[in-house]
TrEMBL record:
<feature type="transmembrane region" description="Helical">
    <location>
        <begin position="9"/>
        <end position="26"/>
    </location>
</feature>
<keyword id="KW-0812">Transmembrane</keyword>
<feature type="transmembrane region" description="Helical">
    <location>
        <begin position="97"/>
        <end position="117"/>
    </location>
</feature>
<dbReference type="InterPro" id="IPR021257">
    <property type="entry name" value="DUF2809"/>
</dbReference>
<keyword id="KW-0472">Membrane</keyword>
<dbReference type="Pfam" id="PF10990">
    <property type="entry name" value="DUF2809"/>
</dbReference>
<keyword id="KW-1133">Transmembrane helix</keyword>
<feature type="transmembrane region" description="Helical">
    <location>
        <begin position="58"/>
        <end position="77"/>
    </location>
</feature>
<protein>
    <submittedName>
        <fullName>DUF2809 domain-containing protein</fullName>
    </submittedName>
</protein>
Length: 125
């Protein structure tokens, strides 16, 4: 893996970041906030990584999924309490505050979407 800036991935990263911020600001409940946002966040992380490196798609996707699962499972052990961040709105937003199996499913579907798109992209080349 070497560092290399990719404008296309960076454009998608920026767009997804704006969408995630809008979801966080304007939606407080519901499917979009709690599930679709989790689906998008793994795609956001993937596009961020691919914006600055030429890591292989499968390796980047697996890294993102492992990171997302790790954060989710740390919620089982009250990570915010351990870090003394329970009262921090930003920490709750970034790290989450409760474990949900549905989040793991959303992360997995997001990574599968990434891999499908990458496969389609390379098969057209």
């Amino acid at each position: 893996m070497t560092l290399k800036f990719n404008k296309t991935y960076f454009a998608f990263f920026t767009l997804l970041l704006v969408v995630e911020i809008a979801i966080a600001i304007f939606l407080k409940e519901g499917f979009i906030r709690h599930t679709f946002g989790d689906y998008l966040v793994v795609i956001l992380m993937y596009t961020c990584i691919k914006s600055f490196s030429n890591i292989k798609p499968l390796a980047a996707a697996v890294d993102v999924l492992l990171f997302a699962f790790s954060i989710e499972f740390l919620q089982l052990f009250n990570l915010l309490d351990v870090l003394n961040l329970r009262d921090s709105h930003l920490a709750k937003l970034i790290l989450g505050s409760t474990f949900h199996i549905s989040d793991l499913i959303a992360y997995t579907l997001g990574v599968l979407t990434i891999l499908c798109i990458e496969h389609l992209k390379t098969s057209k080349s």
